[in-house]
Amino acid sequence: MLFSSYAVQASVLLLISTVFGQYSLQDDYTTSSFGSMFDFFTDDDPTSGYVNYVSQSEAESQGLFTTENNTVYIGVDSTNVASGRGRNSVRISSKNVYTHGLIILDLEHMPGGQCGSWPAFWTLGPDWPTWGEIDIIENVNSATVNTISAHTDSSCSISATGNFTGSILTTDCDSSAASESSDSGCSFTDTSTQTFGAGFNAIGGGVYATEWTSEAISIWFFPRLLIPSDITNGSPDPSGWGEPLAQFTGGGCDIDDHFKNNQVVFDISMCGDWAGDVWSQDATCSLLASTCEDYVQNNPDAFVDTYWLINSLKVYQENNQQDTTSSLSPSSTAGTTTSTASSAATITTTSSSVVPTTFETSTRPIVVPSSVTSTDTWSASVSIPTSTDIWSASVSIPTSTDAPSVLESTSTTTDTSSVSVAGSPFATQGWQDLDGGKQGWGLQGSGWGQRNRGRWSGGD
């Protein structure tokens, strides 16, 4: 049976108040400006990869870099047998550099899981490793989960325990630490295949958000249908996102002493110091060819899905701090926008003692119509009956003179393959960890959510 017997009674109070955003938009890497806000790297790969990084004009003419349909495509050559330095690919670095900030990347598709590939979305400081490196998305060959890491010079270690949901792999960020394998840095991973490669792409992608302050570097991942509404409405507030997937803090590492003036980098390398070095240890890839280089050279069609498809990239700065952005290129142009305060609803959850410890409810800001006043309140409830076969979820919001009348409909089924709930301008969701996966009920923004044996699908 998919579901265990359980009873949940949860009440949710939606309290409307005016919230001033913690962050303001600093740089918006829009589709039209994306190419002009990055430099295209064309030197030999510094990680010894079997890859030929091409210029912007070459990338555009070969279809490796395109901007259309409000997305940015960055890929590798999947047509020709490689020669010379290796397979044609793209590596770009932002012209602007950052010290602190909130980097929010919305991806529709990422490379990863292809034998020989080494994709990464990361930040890099000058005079490596003096000013640090933050690897937000990275892994190699047939890997199915993301590895998040940081690299510094000496005297930077992080705490092995803390408020994060990922699994910590190493704690010494020193790129030359004798106690760790070559240049492993301090790192985290996650058991969910939704964080990387094919698993990420199968759910329509999602958002990686990186908050960098003097106290910590924290990284969250949100699947497409669980992206916080404050991110989608342009007023991000990490205080309402719950625990991050990874957090670099504690352990005596002074963040400001080890991370400064970082560029934002996208690349897709091949083989090299990681993917190439562990080729023989990969049970899948090692059967395909004797070496990584041989496979990458002669199998162009293996890399049809090795590409980034970017919906948006935005960098925010805290409102109470001075601009910590600078440019490496005097000729670069990066538009800046200041966000305005908006009305928001905050979900505060209370529950009875019968709620199992594996049941979670979310707390996050939700934008409401500007006509709603700060004195308006709504109450809502969610119940999941004691049953092994039947469960339901419902939310009703009474009519208010200052807000639209909303009544949520509920679908209850004895077929545990799916349960759906209609949506509204308000959203809330919860889930229960069962059978090693996330299952649960949800109202997804202005659309609807459906659980189909643990996997969400949805629409407007």
Task: Please explain how this structure is put together.
This protein has six helices and 32 strands. By secondary structure, it is mainly β. The chain has two domains: 131 residues, no CATH class; 305 residues, Jelly Rolls. Strands 3, 8, 10, 11, 12, 13, 14, 18 and 20 form a nine-stranded antiparallel β-sheet that branches. Strands 2, 5, 6, 9, 15, 16, 17 and 19 form an eight-stranded antiparallel β-sheet that branches. A four-stranded antiparallel β-sheet has the order 23-21-1-24, with no helix packed on it. Strand 11 and strand 12 form a beta hairpin. The two termini are 31 Å apart. The N terminus and C terminus are likely disordered.
* Biggest β-sheet description: 9 strands, antiparallel
Give the uncertain stretches in residue-range form.
1-20, 329-460
Architecture per CATH nomenclature, i.e. the level-2 architecture of the largest domain: Sandwich
Q: Which range does the strand content fall in?
A: 35-45%
What top-tier CATH class of the largest domain fits best? Answer: Mainly Beta
Structural class: mainly beta
The CATH topology of the largest domain is given as Jelly Rolls
Shape: globular
What is the helix fraction of residues, given as a range?
under 10%
Number of domains: 2
Average per-residue pLDDT, rounded, comes to 75
Number of helices: 6
Distance between the termini: 31 Å
